[in-house]
């Protein structure tokens, strides 16, 4: 059940991000997921009982990238540490 609730709320957050990006194009709205979706890798944290293979430092690349974007960078995107994702 945990995965159902998490996945549903994540999908809703992604859609809200896209809608804000469309409504306010002068502001950058993007969403990041830690880890690598294609490789199913993620950080070892308390949330996953430390079963991940990445360190927290490796896992935060997408978050750092979005925190340092420029005004000309994309908006309304969903990324992981490897780059943009379709959802």
TrEMBL record:
Protein name: Uncharacterized protein
Annotated source species: Kitasatospora cystarginea
InterPro entries: NAD(P)-bd_dom_sf
Superkingdom of origin organism: Bacteria
